[in-house]
Amino acid sequence: MRTASVMHSSTTSNIVVPAVVEPNSEQLQQITPLVAGRVSEIFVALGDTVKKGEVLVSAESPQIAELHGKLHEARTRRQLAALTLERVQQSANRVGIIKAQASLEEADADLRRIKRLVDEGLSARKDLIAAQVKYEKAVADLNFSKDVTLNKEVAEARAGLSTAKTEEEHIRDSLKAFDVQLSSEDGLHAEHDIATLNLRAPMSGTVIERFVNPGSGFEAGKPILTIANTATVWVIASVPEAKMDAIRVGMPASVRVDERTMLGQVSYIDPRLNEDTRTGRVRVIINNQDGKIKCGSYAQIIFQSARREPALMIPESAVEHIDGKSIVFLEESKGKYRVREIDIGVANGDMVAVTKGLTGQESVVSQGVFLLKSKLLREQMHDSD
Question: Which CATH code, of 3.40.47.10, 3.20.20.70, 2.40.50.100, 2.40.37.10, is assigned to 29-61+202-228?
Fold first, then answer.
């Protein structure tokens, strides 16, 4: 048998607290229709994996049907307005050009006639100047008529077309906002139920909540499905108020969940305390690419604090375990030993910290412990007989 004295040292103190696995709220989306209606079909169940853009729910909505009708009316008005503008422009240009051409021919004839009279001395020079001005004005009027006619009817027709286009675009934008797919005008003529609303996945992930079934009615603004990307998950710990000061953002942490241990780090510390439990929420992010960690699972977090505290250290070989309890053997005198139950803390090499059960004045058996343990067990069996 060999013994070792209990050593006074310092060690880092781990903080072990309960926790719950939650979905990463930054990677979570709810499927929330902006109109009321009734579910026709639902294509996913809880736990299903979906891809972005995949149709999850097919529904019917009277509001969508009404908007489709208004869109059809607006598109028809826009087409009529375009035809009206074309007709007015053609008519106005034709009349204007004919009138301008006639005026030009008249002015040209007058100019040639007055030139002859002036040459023969039968007309004053001022008449020639007036005829020249009239001719140049007629040329300008003809050229203007050949350009875009800016008369009142054309302006009104253009305004009507612009209004019709704006109205149509407004209704199309409203349908798109309700997640109605409108690829082209031709798609509006396809044979389909204009009340149908297909709700698609806004992101890839896993369905973690489902609030409706086929035939169920739904209200505008209320979620019907929740999708979460669980490639990373949040583990939320409830840390006692007295230990909050020892935790820092970025510090490492070990997470135990479903008999697995993973490494993570503190990403957020809630500045508020729970008034009832006097605990603070601390968030640790861990990787879950394989999807084996389920949201809602209970977990345990071990924060590896950098703060050093006084500790009693003994050789790890001195510690034995009986019935789930940690024990050591103390040497009272040569050849005489006594069992002491202890609580152990952080290991440091071949030494382990003792958090409860020793005062620091004892000597513990460090070699031959297994023989003492065997003898103790035999005595216990004999006593029970």
Answer: 2.40.50.100
